[in-house]
Amino acid sequence: MAAKPKEFVVWAEKYRPTKIKDIIDQEHVVNRVKAFLKDRNLPHMLFAGPPGTGKTTLALVIARELYGPQWRSNVLSLNASDERGIDVIRGKIKDFARTKPIGDVPFKLIILDEADAMTAEAQQALRRTMEDFAAITRFILICNYSSKIIEPIQSRCAVFRFKALPEKFQKEFINRIVKGEGLEITEDGIKALLDIAEGDLRKVANLLQAAAAMTKKIDANIVYDVASQAKPKEVEEMLNLAMKGNFLKAREKLHKMLLIEGLAGQDVIKQIYKQSLKLDIPEDKKVELIHLIGEYDFRISEGGDALIQLTSLLAHFALIAKKK
Fold first, then answer.
1. What is the per-residue burial (b if ≥16 Cβ within 10 Å, else e) of 10-46?
2. Which residues lie across from 217 on neighbouring strands?
3. pLDDT for the residue numbered 81
């Protein structure tokens, strides 16, 4: 009889905190939430901030703290980017909101993740639902950009703004997973994770899991390979060649990245931006380069051919280097 396949566990979920004391570096938010939980009463809430900083985690922790093991009976969790139309507000959300809670907490909880993806009509309908059923239902809206939430909803919510996590806490999270999964990681591997994730702990966990599937000893090359990102050293060499006037060799390196390694133009130009800030050139030239990078990034995002646009960008780098 064949062995039963091992169940796949997503590390981003496995290492997600389940208690409020385990939320990393968001004390300015957590302390306010603790005060509400102590009274077993909540206002409508709006969580806003960068991805992977604990917004959804805190919402689920609140649900567990309020309702205990049976929290799923009193909580409706939806991803508003998938179910963002007015029909969902008038149907599923309204039906759940109008029913009484189970247990001793006097209200139920509706968590709307990625609420900034909701249509304007859906947000207007949601505003009315929040008003009508405030006595027995509370809402937690989660978004990256609070400016995309209409003002009437913002005025009905207590707004909590999450901040990007410092490197110190990102490293603690990495070391926790490495220790828990019996991995080895080099210093340049940690640096690569921090560079790619940019404060998003969910991305950190997923990159580590993908890298660990290849090898138990993780270094920077493995991290950049699984992330399909341009390696900083290669991009730095390409830019230095262009700035020294060796355009054809710089173009060869670009061809290798895009055509052989299969990297996306958006990822390459993002790395070009990071490395251009480190170039040893006068500030006025650096300003000119950054302006160009922004222009070519826009062209690629609008559908321009990545190879042609990035080759043109390298040509501009070479021309700027020649200026006195």
1. ebbeebbeeebeebbbbeebbeebeebeeeeebebbb
2. 184
3. 62
58 and 134 assigned to the same domain: yes
The total number of structural domains that make up the chain: 3
Domain that holds residue 60: 26-161
Q: What is the mean pLDDT of residues 307-319?
A: 91
**Residue 43, φ and ψ in degrees, nearest 5:** -85, 175
Which is nearest to 157 in space by CA: 62, 45, 33? 45
Same domain, 256 and 213: no
Instruction: Say yes or no: 237 and 211 in one domain.
Output: no
For the record, the structure tokens of 113 come out as 């993740």
Residue 97 and residue 171 in one domain: no
Taking 60 as the threshold, does the pLDDT of residue 5 lie above it? no
DSSP one-letter code for 263: -
CB 219 within 8 A of CB 189: yes
Query: What pLDDT, on the 0 to 100 scale, is given for residue 80?
Result: 63
Q: CB count, 10 Å around CB of 210?
A: 16
- Domain annotation covers residue 293: yes
